[in-house]
Fold:
Amino acid sequence: MLVVMKNDATEEQVQAVIKEIENMGYRGVPMPGAQRTAICIIGNQGPVESSTLLAIDGVQETIPVTKPYKLVSRETHTESTVISIGEVRIGAKEPVVMAGPCAVESEEQALTIADIVKKCGAKVFRGGAFKPRTSPYSFQGLGEEGLRILGKVREKTGLLIVTEATDHANLDVVEKYADIIQIGARNMQNYSLLRLAGQVSKPILLKRSFAATIDELLMAAEYIISEGNSQVILCERGIRTFSDNTRNTLDLSAIPSIKEVSHLPIIVDPSHAAGRREYVTSLSKGAIAVGADGLLVEVHHDPSRALSDGMQSLYPQQFEELMEEIEHLRH
Ligand code: PEP
Ligand code: MN
Structure:
C-alpha cells in the first residue's frame, strides 16, 4: 500500500505515518516526488487496514499496490528514475553507452580500448576483472589486478567504470574501484548477494538472467532497493529460447514492458544477446528505437586474440559506426 501525503505535509507528519506503519509490524519507505511525498508500506503479506493511517494529519489518501514488487514499481514512484554519476545521467533523455572488452586482460589492452571507446563517445568503460565463466578452465579474469587497471583507466581517461562482482568475497573490493557494480545474469537470483548489493554506496547494474521473467528481474531489483540502495539500472542481455541462430534471444519487448511497470532505467547488452559481432549494431539500433536508456557493448582492438567473447566483440571501426548510427536514431 502507498500512503500519499498532502502537498503541504510536514516532515513530522511523514515521520508519524512511518511510526504508525512500524507499530503495525511493517516498514515504511518514504518515496519523495516532485509534487508530494508518498510512503510505501513493505513487509505486509496481505492487505493493510488503512483507517488508522488515514486518520493521521497530513495524509491525503491510501492506494493499494497491485504488483508483488513495490519499491521498483511505477505505482509507488511515478516519475522515471535518473541515476547521476558525475556528469553522466542514466535514465535521462540521452542513451548512455558503456563499452569495452569482456575482460580486462592487461593494462595495455584496457587503455588501448578505453581510448578508442572514449573517442567514439562512450561514457562508461566496461571490463570484467572477476569473470563468471561457464568452464572452470576458461580465463577467470585478473581479479584485483584487473580492478587496479580499471582504476588506471578511470584516472587516465575520465571514463566511469562498470565491472562485475561475482560473489560476497569480491563485492567490497569491486565497490572500491567501480563506479557501477555489475551483478551478472548468473547471479540475478543470488538473493544474499543482492541483499549485500543493497547495502553498498554505488549504483548496481543488474542483468536479467537468461531464464528469468520480467517479474523475476523486478523482484531481484526489489531485493536491492529494499536494503536501501535505490540506484539500480536494469539490463536486458538476451534470454534462452529454442532459437539457436544467436547466442541468446534479445527480448526487446522487455524494454517497453519494464518501462510501463517500473521507474528504473533499463539498458541493453546486444553483445551477449547476439554472440556474434555481425548482429550487434542492428540489435543496438533496435534497442535505442524501443527506448533503452543505454547500451553495454563489448569492443576489442584485437578480437581474435581476446581471452573471452572475441566472437561478439566489435572491432574499433564497427564501434565507431555503431555510435554514428545510433546518433542518427536519436534525432
Ligand atoms: C558480462 O557482461 O561480461 C557478462 C558476463 O554478462 P552476463 O552476466 O549477461 O552473461
Ligand atoms: Mn562477455
